[in-house]
Amino acid sequence: MSNICEVYDEFNRYIYHLCLKLTRNPLEAEDLMQEVWVKVVRNKEQMEHVDHVKAWLTTITMNTFRDRYRKSVRRSKYVLSQPETLDVPILDLVPNNEVSTEEQIEKVVVTKIVQEKIKQLDVIYQKTLWYFYVEQYSLAEISKLMKVSIGTVKSRLFRAKARLKEILLSDYKLEDVVVPV
C-alpha cells in the first residue's frame, strides 16, 4: 500500500480518533493530526518498506503527540491527565522531568542573586519574606510570631516584594534575568 491517498482514505478517521483520545480536544486533535500527516507525507518513501502501516502511523502519531506534550510541559510545567482507556503505556507519555544542567545552574545563580538582594531589605521585610516563603508559615502564624495584625503582615509582604523587585531591576547586570511585570 504505497499510495499515500489510499493510506489517507483508509486511516484518516483512525488517526483523528487517536489524536482526539490523546488531546481530548477536537481543535488540538485536528492540529496534531495535520502534523502527523505532514510527517507521513515527508516520509512516504519509508512507508513502502513498512509491513504494518497502521502500527507505523500509530507510532508517528504517538511520537508527534509526545513531542508536543513535552514542549508544552516544559513551557508551562502543567501535566495533562491522560485517559485511562489509552492503549499505549502511560510511561511513554510522561515527559522526562529531569532538570537540565543549564536549568540547575540558572536556578542556583538566580537563587544566589535573590538572596544577596534580600539582604539589602530592612530586617523586618527580610523576616517577613523568610517566614512566608522559606518557612512557609501562614499569614496568621506570621502575625502571631511578629505580634502584628494579619493586615500588617500582608502589607509588609507586598512592600518587601515591591522593594525587592526595585532592587533587582536597578541592577543593570540583571537586565536579562529580571522581567519587569
UniProtKB/TrEMBL annotation:
KW Transcription regulation (keyword) present: yes
Organism domain of life: Bacteria
CDD domains in UniProt: Sigma70_r4
GO molecular function, one term: sigma factor activity
Domain (RNA polymerase sigma factor 70 region 4 type): residue spans on this chain: 113-164
Keywords: Sigma factor, Transcription, Transcription regulation
Residues covered by the RNA polymerase sigma-70 region domain: 8-74
One GO-annotated biological process of the protein: DNA-templated transcription initiation
InterPro entries referenced in this protein's UniProt entry, alphabetically: RNA_pol_sigma-70-like, RNA_pol_sigma-70_dom, RNA_pol_sigma70_r2, RNA_pol_sigma70_r4_t2, RNA_pol_sigma_r2, RNA_pol_sigma_r3/r4-like, WH-like_DNA-bd_sf
NCBIfam families hit by this protein: sigma70-ECF
Similarity comment text for this entry: Belongs to the sigma-70 factor family. ECF subfamily.
Protein name listed in UniProt: RNA polymerase sigma factor
